[in-house]
Amino acid sequence: IDDDLHRAAMQGRLAAARAVAGENDASKQMFATAIASVEAHEREPEKRALTLAQLGRLQALSGDRAGAVQTLARAQSEAEKLEPGDRREDALDHIARGLARSGDSAAALQTALRMNDRIARALVVRDVVTMQTSADSTSAAASAAEFADPLIEAAAQFGVLGMQMLRATTPLSQETIEAARRAVRKIDEKQPKPAAFAALAAARVKT
């Protein structure tokens, strides 16, 4: 592969596969090679930031939390220099999810705050909350508080419901369903409301 960044991304996927196979030392070496290749690439700052973010997220998924945090910090530094646009949003999305996988939900939410796309922010917050095994309606509201956006608050509550759904033995919380309903009712825009109410109806069926 001639493209340095594309090759680094492929190396990251192979490194993740090696980690799954239990070849942790080989995986870390491949990640190190891939990251060094990206940092040596002086052109295409948008692609460089996105590739670093992808590699950091793959490291987190591979279980290398310390390595992931370092790579994601580098990606964050690169992303902060970018002009608003899809590449910046994609990089921040990968960074936030990688940080959440690394166990740093607070940093993940702070990264989501930097995103300009409101729907993308909501999806990231929902998924970050879903990864918190002890999340409830109160902690979800706290996670969404800094955004001051009812769409984000509703997404956070749906994150708790999603986490509860993943636990086959855990009934859905009526308190969380009610908190999600209140948040959905506060959404001003007409477009997101039908989907949100449909999701609420599905959650009620599960109880």
Mean pLDDT: 85
Q: How many β strands by DSSP?
A: 0
Q: What does the radius of gyration come to?
A: 18 Å
Structural class: mainly alpha
Helix content: over 70%
- Return the string of H and E elements: HHHHHHHHHHH
Shape: globular
Summarize the structure.
The chain has 207 residues and is mainly α.
Give an overview in words.
Helix 9 (150-166) packs parallel to helix 11 (192-206). 76% of the residues lie in helices and 0% in strands. The chain is built from eleven helices and no strands. The protein has 207 residues and is mainly α.
Give descriptors for this structure:
mainly alpha, 11 helices
Layout of helices and strands, plus pairs?
Blueprint: H1 4-20, H2 24-40, H3 45-61, H4 65-79, H5 86-101, H6 105-113, H7 118-130, H8 137-145, H9 150-166, H10 174-185, H11 192-206
Helix pairs in contact: 1-2, 1-3, 2-3, 3-4, 3-5, 4-5, 5-6, 5-7, 6-7, 7-9, 8-9, 9-10, 9-11, 10-11
